[in-house]
Design goal:
Layout lengths: L1 H10 L9 H21 L3 H23 L17 H20 L1 H35 L7 H35 L3 H41 L13 H26 L3 H17 L4 H11 L10 E4 L2 E7 L3 E5 L7 E5 L25 E3 L5 E7 L3 E6 L4 E5 H6 L3 E2 L4 E9 L7 H14 L6 E9 L4 E9 L7 H18 L16
Antiparallel strand pairs: 1-2, 2-3, 3-4, 5-6, 5-9, 6-7, 7-8, 10-12, 11-12
Amino acid sequence: MLKHLIFVILISTAGFAQNPRLDNINAIYQNIGWLKQQLKTEKSAEKIEKLKKQLERTENTFSDLASETSLFSYSRKNREEEKPGILNQIEEILNPVISNLKRASSRPRKMERLRDRIGFIEERIKSVNAGLVNIEKLIKSKDAAHLLPGLTAVKDRLLKLKQENDLRKNLLEQQLQQMEKESGSVVSTVRTFIDDVFKTKGKNLLLALLTAVAIFVLMRMLKKVLFKRNFLSARLSFLKKTIATMYGLITGTLSVLGGVFCLYFLNDWFLFTLAILVIAGVLWSSKQLLPKMVKEIRLMLNLGSVRENERIVWNGCPWLVKKIGFRCTLENKELEGGHLKLSVDKIYDLYSRHVIKDEPWFPTKKNDWVILDDNTYGKVVTQTPEQVVLELIGRTRKYYPLPAFIGLNPQNLSTGFSVSSEIGIDYSKQKEILKIVDIFKKEFLLDEYKHGDVLIEFKDAAAHSLDIFVRIMFPGEMAEFYYKIQRLVQAKLVEICNNHDLDIPFEQLTVHMSK
């Protein structure tokens, strides 16, 4: 029995067909007879079932070898592999989305499947025709006379198979033609899809959004009731920001969940699954941003390096932190439009400190006169968080980005300024130099300089002259005349020298000769 079984397995394999075709056919044909005999003698139902399957495979092999095709041993039954449990669960979750996508493209896919099946059947018909030709050759062959019953049976199977395939091909072609007639244009298909979306999905999505907005508004109204101005004692006031931030996070979470559950109760599994996938994607992507999110949450809880009502430097300029949330509010009242709203990630790497009383928030104000390190002298006509515009003498305007302007260390003349100058007196007045200094003081105090803080002193006995130092303080209102005042002071010094016959020496070379 075991020898016969091994023989059946060998003869059913592709490798056995390497011998001459007619010899293989003879061997297989003899084996078919032996298997039929075994079926009659076997009593065990299980063994009979196995022998039937072996007989079916062997007969199919015989038919394929005789017709030189693979029509009968080819099995179109696809064994479905058991998927792991988690894959089944994922498929069930995604099934509503996939079903909607399939439904949207069902007609084109059906037509494409019909074309594929028609092509497959045409190939089968070609193989059947080729098999019939080969069977006819064997039937007419004298060497295969003893195989005539088996070959006739194979021929009958082939003719039946050809008839079945011809019928199936005709039915599929008619079905394809009918679908091509019924199918509209691409525009009508798209219009139908859009109408379906707006009538069903659009309505459900609108209801979900309205639910989320309603929950958000109700939670905000409830916040005004719960978070009164003094709802915490002075000792617990530092928790106010933390509680408010946690309440905001709860509000956002409940709003999103309300919209998602609205889709659930409406039985719109497509939008419900899509919403779950979007939320899952956001949560998954946020995993890599967790360290950054922790910093931002600490800021929103007023526990980070930047805190509310403290001073920070951002973009080179000091700002007051008015509020920290998902969007942070910065304020600088010295700037036009000095009220900024930034996302929290813009400031979480900065540091704040307590505000000092009377601390300046910007070096200048509008209409102030300044001198910069690049020797630019002009009036501030505009200062915003982006730029500072100076109007120079002659009404020419010069534009500076805010950080560049601060980097040039502006001197604000409008808060008060001084003009300094020097003049040299000839050494012939050496004995009278201190009296001359008094003369200069009296002269400067007699005219328009009498309201300024005037300082006149003997400075130095230089190589060629006795130098007198003059410094006069002026109020900020006169900053517009800064350079003009410098020239007037020089003119005044020369005028005093002329009025009192004081010589102003110039550099000269003195040669001492020995006698």
